[in-house]
Amino acid sequence: MKYCYDCGTKLINKELEHEGIVPFCPNCNKYVFPIFSAAVSMIVTDKNQENILLIKQYGTDFYRFVAGYINKGESAEEAVYREIYEEVGLKPIKIAPMKTAYFEKSNTLMYNYLAICDDTSVVSNYEIDEYAWIPMNQAMDALKNAKLALEFFKYYKDNIRK
Ligand SMILES: [Zn+2]
Question: Could you say which of 3.40.1000, 1.10.3470, 2.20.70, 1.20.120 is the CATH number of the domain covering 1-34?
Fold first, then answer.
């Protein structure tokens, strides 16, 4: 971050109380912090983590995780529950943070969560084209065209799931 987002002026380093040295635009007379979006993606499983819920969306033909952007003013956890409900109508009994990764194409920091559901009957699919409960041992193959989801799933498989 070398130039001001608003006016393009070269940034200088300036001390900000309680923060230390922060880039500062002398033209706009303001401190400039990094700007990026934040989103959540979810490894939605059934109660015993035997099956994983994958969806197809936006007319594309590959499986992906339920996911969505975090709204301004919302916590990541709130976004997890909201997106799962909006996309598939489920209410997880438990969620847990997994791994994060930066996705350059959309300038987004993605927070992956595990979301365990007791009731697995999908009741709404307004925002998706189709869904499938996939056995865990087939998930890697099902996700082969979703690079970031595959990375998250590998982390879950190698570090979390017993
Ligand atoms: Zn400026």
Answer: 2.20.70
Contact 150, 140 (CB under 8 A): yes
CA of 45 to the centre of ligand 1 (A): 46
Region 123-138 average pLDDT:
86
69-97: per-residue pLDDT in tens?
A: 999 999 999 999 999 999 999 999 999 99
Copy the structure tokens of residue 115: 């979301």
How many whole angstroms from 98 Cα to the centroid of ligand 1?
37
Q: Is the pLDDT of residue 68 over 80?
A: yes
Q: And the tokens for 75?
A: 């916590």
What's the CATH architecture for 37-160?
Alpha-Beta Complex (3.90)
CA angle 79, 64, 117 (to 5 degrees): 55
Give the Å distance between the CA of 5 and the centre of ligand 1.
Answer: 7
Give the closest residue to 67 by CA, choosing from 79, 75, 52.
Answer: 79
> What's the full length of the chain, in residues?
162
Examine the pLDDT at 18 and tell me if it is beyond 70: yes
